[in-house]
Amino acid sequence: MAARLARLDDPEGLQQAALETALEAFRCSSGAVCLWDAQGRRLRLARAVGRAAGAEVSGLAEAAGVTSADVDGREPALPGPGEVTLEAAAGPWAVRAVIPVVGSTDLLGVLALGAPAKGEAYSETDRALMAALGQVVAMAAETYLVHSRFRSEMQHRMDETVAELNRASAELARVKTFDEELFQSLPVGIVVFDPRFHIIFRNAAAERLWPEDRNVFDAARRSDVARVDADWEVGLREVVDMRRPWLAAGLRLERAGAEPARVNLASSPLLSQRQGVVGGVLVIEDVTQRVKMQERLEVSERLAGVGRLAAMVAHEINNPLDGITRLVNLSARAIDGGDTERVPGYLEYVGKGLARIGTIVRELLDFSRSASGTVEPMPIRDILAEAVHTMTPAADEAGVTVALDCAPDLPPLRSGHLYHAVLNLVKNAVEASPRGGRVRVGARCTDDTLVIEVADSGPGLPADVLAHLFEPFYSRKALGKGTGLGLVISRDLVAKQGGSLTAANRDAGGAVFTVRVPLAPGSGPAAMPETKEG
């Protein structure tokens, strides 16, 4: 019986089985299951059979004398005939047995039975059996309650877990959507590839540049990456194999049905905490518009420079032309007036004006030719020594000493541009130095850069002169002594070597012009300089 009751997993079935068991065991035709309402502290009819149907059981416990002691002791009550009568649907119902069903601490309910079938009274043996039945029903009820609470708690926890999972899933979906929208809206192309360099994801910007390629190498080959990086395939493979980033800038990328794009590529390994390198990420920056704007800007700057140069050339040539015109007119008037003695003097000044124009034209030709010309590699020391040797006669005449101070094992360099630039700087330094002054020409290598300095012992350069020093036709020399193109040509010659020319004042007095020219990595030796007077 206990096992059968324990297997029941619903309260109605347990109540029905408990009542049927009691009626069968005690040969009774009427009975009821009453549940205890702890809040209202009264019994409530749950199930009834026979004349007990519809019975009013609220006062049953007190009427049957089921005291707290009876409850605590789980002892059934056996009222005598007529002692406990309840109003029921079919009329009065006589209760002859009240079996308390008590849990561990609380009253759960009672089983109320009518008289036995033959009208006999219940015996003490029946009372003992009733007590045992009450305990069995109580254990089954408590087991059900425990299981019910457990199931309820588990269901509650499951509901909470499912709700949390749903929230997490919704948040994950939101984040995933956000990430996808973020990647798709980026102006740069994002390509994700696996360890075999197969493309597994690309955003919209990358799709516009690489719409059909399924492999990173195939896509990269549509550009001129080999022009920028001869070992680009090795570098790209090392992204996965060696976890090394790879960069390639200024590539020309062919596109079907569109003009070529200019792009920068940057790749990094894609890492997982558990699996290590799981592929790589390639960022494609489309710089086509930027390059076009830079090219247009360079063209505009060149045109503006040409315009300014043309205006200055016209101004510089127009001045001697005005003088020549006036002198020719004066010569004509003198000849017409018979005063021919002045004509040779006029013509002498005409010759000087024409010579001035010729000098300007020659230096303009040097300026225009500075971007071209065949030059051969030559040791840097030899280049500087030749420039110093060329200026030595003029320096001796001016009473100026020119010293060459450079290491003997400096690397070779293309000589044509640099020679003319240094020669011009030495010439200016000699002219700026007073008699008894000294010009120093030094050279050294620092961080793969050739540094040449031409320092004089003259008065230095005022701030207003420094601001305009490299402008065409700007000169501080006396009229007829310079065209103002020498430093412009020198700076242009140095720029053709990829270098720069700057001017500054020395703390010890005088000016110093510094030429910086990049060398091939590792070509700059470290050596102690030596001095040679020339």
List the defining traits of the structure above:
Helix Hairpins, six-stranded mixed beta sheet, Beta-Lactamase, alpha+beta, single chain, 15 helices, disordered C terminus, five-stranded antiparallel beta sheet
Structural write-up:
- Helix content is 46%, strand content 24%.
- It has 15 helices and 19 strands.
- It has helices at 2-6, 11-25, 60-63, 68-73, 124-185, 204-209, 216-220, 225-228, 232-241, 288-336, 343-369, 380-398, 415-432, 463-468, 486-496, and strands at residues 31-37, 42-49, 85-88, 91-94, 97-102, 107-113, 189-193, 199-202, 246-255, 258-272, 276-286, 377-379, 401-406, 412-414, 438-446, 449-455, 500-505, 511-518, 530-533.
- The strands form five sheets. It has a six-stranded mixed β-sheet with strand order 17-18-16-15-13-19. The chain has a five-stranded antiparallel β-sheet with strand order 8-7-11-10-9, sandwiched between helices.
- A hairpin with a 4-residue loop joins β1 (31-37) and β2 (42-49).
- α2 runs antiparallel to α5 (124-185), α10 (288-336) runs antiparallel to α11 (343-369) and α13 (415-432) runs antiparallel to α15 (486-496).
